[in-house]
């Protein structure tokens, strides 16, 4: 049970036990509520939520077989406020409205172990999600069915092979209207996948090569290949050096292909409507990733990790204006999606874990990211890249310290620094760099009853972490200082 500032409250119940000495099961339920977030101007947002979820899981064993069945269901109601285009004067509408989500899922899994180097698993999954948001999307219902098979086996003394097949079907129905709709309103897409991976012990316990590839056929771009190669060298028991080269893709989604979104309406005159249109000719966005890393344990109480990478993105989404067309008395300026942008990013992460004493643990990490983006040559004027490097902070520093204190007390402190987001400056605003801290004090009252006091964002009363979009009249939600109390009872 949790309660705190900002009218936050949550209750979790969980019960589990053994079943017929061959299995175990558990059920759970939770309910939570939270009032609207603060706005940067000091006002109160309308994005409060009430949410409930429940589910179960059961695991059974028989000889070398393990069977798992689990399911969840949820319901949520909240609010939102958006500044959206309107088809008639004043051509803009401040829409504050209720929204709701409903959903359920069911999963079944069978796995069998033949030997220490041979096993297989078969999994089936079904999910249904419903979202109602009248002014923007209307009603969206999505049904997903997923099948997955994996087989692992050893081949000779040096090869460890994992392969698998998958099938996914997604069917949706969208009843959107102005300003957001889909054409067609209903669609079923299919994804067939396969993969194979071979871990090769070149020099036992010293040098290993991992070779693999993922194959897929999707409803938007057809066949896609995603290979990867990884090298791991262990020069000593306390250190490991690794490197990897991989290709990955992001295939177009239903939004990329079928969206119709009225971005703006204004009285020129004549009345002009700017409309973003999906494209069924989009290709998959492609990434070539180069990564290297080093891990060392110079002392039993100290471990260090360093990772560096370079990412090369191609065929990224672009937006190009088309020639205006007349729709009755309204001039329509179409904006069409393409694959004419590219980007490059490089950076790294350094982290350390220290066990200063049996009762004190420290973790620290620093991340650096540099990203540039641009357009391919020969594009029409007005084309823009649908990627903004300024949406990512260049520097992030995190420090976590955990103390085990006398009298069954635990005290954790988490500090972080995040640099500014230069690409999010609508109307002269900006997301500035910040330093923030969280803290947690926990007390074990009995072996079955525990209490916690949690503070988040303790160094400021209110701060802006991101801007959502120009359609948000509050310029994004403000993160407020939070205090929470939590009570746990195990029975």
Explain the overall architecture.
- It contains one helix and 29 strands.
- It has 491 residues and is mainly β.
- The chain has one domain.
- The strands form two sheets. It has a 22-stranded antiparallel beta barrel. It has a two-stranded antiparallel sheet with strand order 27-28.
- The radius of gyration is 26 Å and the shape is globular.
- The two termini are 14 Å apart.
Topology summary:
Elements: E1 2-4, E2 8-19, E3 23-34, E4 49-62, E5 65-85, E6 92-115, E7 118-133, E8 138-155, E9 159-174, E10 180-182, E11 186-203, E12 207-218, E13 222-236, E14 239-250, H1 254-258, E15 259-267, E16 271-277, E17 285-299, E18 302-321, E19 325-327, E20 330-357, E21 360-375, E22 384-385, E23 395-405, E24 409-418, E25 434-446, E26 449-456, E27 462-464, E28 478-480, E29 482-489
Parallel strand pairs: 16-20
Antiparallel strand pairs: 1-2, 1-29, 2-3, 3-4, 4-5, 5-6, 6-7, 7-8, 8-9, 9-11, 10-15, 11-12, 12-13, 13-14, 14-17, 15-16, 17-18, 18-20, 18-22, 19-20, 20-21, 21-23, 23-24, 24-25, 25-26, 26-29, 27-28
């Amino acid at each position: 049970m949790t309660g705190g500032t900002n009218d936050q409250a949550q209750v979790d119940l969980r019960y589990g036990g053994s079943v017929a000495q061959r299995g175990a099961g558990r059920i759970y339920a939770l309910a939570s509520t939270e009032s609207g977030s603060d706005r940067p101007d000091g006002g109160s947002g309308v994005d409060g939520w009430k949410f409930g979820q429940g589910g179960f899981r059961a695991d059974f064993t028989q000889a070398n077989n393990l069977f798992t069945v689990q399911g969840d269901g949820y319901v949520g109601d909240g609010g939102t406020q958006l500044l959206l285009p309107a088809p008639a004067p004043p051509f803009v509408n401040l829409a504050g409205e209720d929204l709701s989500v409903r959903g359920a899922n069911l999963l079944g899994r069978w796995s069998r172990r033949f030997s220490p180097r041979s096993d297989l698993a078969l999994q089936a999954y079904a999910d249904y999600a419903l979202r109602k948001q009248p002014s923007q999307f209307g009603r969206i219902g999505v049904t997903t069915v997923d099948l997955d098979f994996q087989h692992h086996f050893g081949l000779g003394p040096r090869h460890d092979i994992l392969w698998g097949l998958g099938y996914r079907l997604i069917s949706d129905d969208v009843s959107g209207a102005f300003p957001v709709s889909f054409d067609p309103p209903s669609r079923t897409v299919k994804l067939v996948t396969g993969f194979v991976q071979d871990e090769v012990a070149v020099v036992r316990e010293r040098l290993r090569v991992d070779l693999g590839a993922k194959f897929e056929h999707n409803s938007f771009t057809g066949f896609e290949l995603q290979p990867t190669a990884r090298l791991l060298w262990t020069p000593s028991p306390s250190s490991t050096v690794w490197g990897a080269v991989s290709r990955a893709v992001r295939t177009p989604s239903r939004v990329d292909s079928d969206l119709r979104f009225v971005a703006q309406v204004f009285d020129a005159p004549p009345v002009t409507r700017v409309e973003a249109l999906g494209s069924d000719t989009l290709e998959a966005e492609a990434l070539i990733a180069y990564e290297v890393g080093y891990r060392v344990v110079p002392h039993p109480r100290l471990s260090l990790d360093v990772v560096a990478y370079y990412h090369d993105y191609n065929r990224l989404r672009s937006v190009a204006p088309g020639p205006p067309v007349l729709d009755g008395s309204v001039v329509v300026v179409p904006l069409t999606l393409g694959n004419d942008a590219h980007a490059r990013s490089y950076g790294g992460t350094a982290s350390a874990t220290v066990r200063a004493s049996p009762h004190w643990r420290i973790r620290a990490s620093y991340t650096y990211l540099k990203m540039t983006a641009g357009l391919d040559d020969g594009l029409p004027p007005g084309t823009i890249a649908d990627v903004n490097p300024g949406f990512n902070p260049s520097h992030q520093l995190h420090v976590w310290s955990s103390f085990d204190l006398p009298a069954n007390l635990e005290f954790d402190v988490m500090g972080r620094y995040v640099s500014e987001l230069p690409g999010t400056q609508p109307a002269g605003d900006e997301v500035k760099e910040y330093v923030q801290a969280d803290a947690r004090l926990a007390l074990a009252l009995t072996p079955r009853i525990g209490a916690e006091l949690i503070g988040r964002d303790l160094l400021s009363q209110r701060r802006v972490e991101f801007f959502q979009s120009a359609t948000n009249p509050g310029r994004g939600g403000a993160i407020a200082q939070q205090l929470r109390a939590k009570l746990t009872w195990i029975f």
